[in-house]
């Protein structure tokens, strides 16, 4: 049994030296060559097409962002232009309204002045007519008083 155990240990030691985890015989360069061929093959079949697709996608996104930025800038410029035009239009409308109000006030004040002048003229004419009528009435009364006084005098003297 001792002999059997020692032969088993010798076989294990010799096998360990013959082929272990790393065996540096013809299989190592073959495995390295196989690894390189597989790497090159995967590079051409998968990595480059996927890389190209990712580059195209990145460029598409970059172009989209650039065009979106340009559109946003243009929209902002148009918005500011429209806001400026709107503000100018509002100012112009306010000026037109103010001018129309001033013209209307001037027209109304002129009409009021004309009406006042007409009223003053009518009053002056009415006062003149009343004065004339008053003078005529006074003359008429004077004549009547003279006639009555003559009649009274005649009656008093006759009696």
TrEMBL record:
InterPro entries: ATP_synth_b (IPR034679), ATP_synth_B-like_membr_sf (IPR028987), ATP_synth_b/b'su_bac/chlpt (IPR002146), ATP_synth_F0_bsu_bac (IPR005864), ATP_synthase_B_chain (IPR050059). It is found in: Cell membrane; Endomembrane system; Membrane. NCBIfam families: ATP_synt_b, PRK07353.1. The gene is atpg. Keywords: ATP synthesis, Cell membrane, CF(0), Coiled coil, Hydrogen ion transport, Ion transport, Membrane, Plastid, Transmembrane, Transmembrane helix, Transport. This is ATP synthase CF0 subunit II. The keyword Acetylation does not apply. Belongs to the ATPase B chain family. Residues 83-158 form a coiled coil. It comes from the Eukaryota. The chain crosses the membrane at residues 26-47. GO terms for cellular component: endomembrane system; plasma membrane; proton-transporting ATP synthase complex. Component of the F(0) channel, it forms part of the peripheral stalk, linking F(1) to F(0). The b'-subunit is a diverged and duplicated form of b found in plants and photosynthetic bacteria. It is a single-pass membrane protein. Pfam families: ATP-synt_B.
């Amino acid at each position: 049994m001792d002999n059997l155990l020692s032969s088993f240990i010798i076989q294990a030691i010799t096998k360990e030296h013959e082929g272990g985890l790393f065996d540096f015989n013809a299989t190592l360069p073959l495995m390295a060559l196989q690894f390189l061929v597989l790497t090159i093959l995967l590079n051409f079949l998968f990595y480059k097409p996927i890389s190209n697709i990712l580059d195209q996608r990145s460029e598409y996104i970059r172009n989209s962002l650039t065009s979106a930025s340009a559109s946003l800038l243009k929209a902002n410029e148009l918005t500011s232009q429209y806001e400026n035009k709107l503000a100018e239009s509002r100012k112009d409308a306010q000026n037109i309204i103010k001018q129309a109000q001033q013209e209307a006030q001037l027209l109304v004040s002129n009409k009021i002045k004309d009406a006042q002048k007409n009223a003053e003229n009518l009053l002056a004419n009415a006062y003149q007519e009343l004065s004339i009528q008053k003078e005529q009435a006074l003359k008429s009364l004077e004549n009547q008083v003279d006639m009555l006084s003559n009649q009274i005098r005649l009656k008093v003297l006759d009696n």
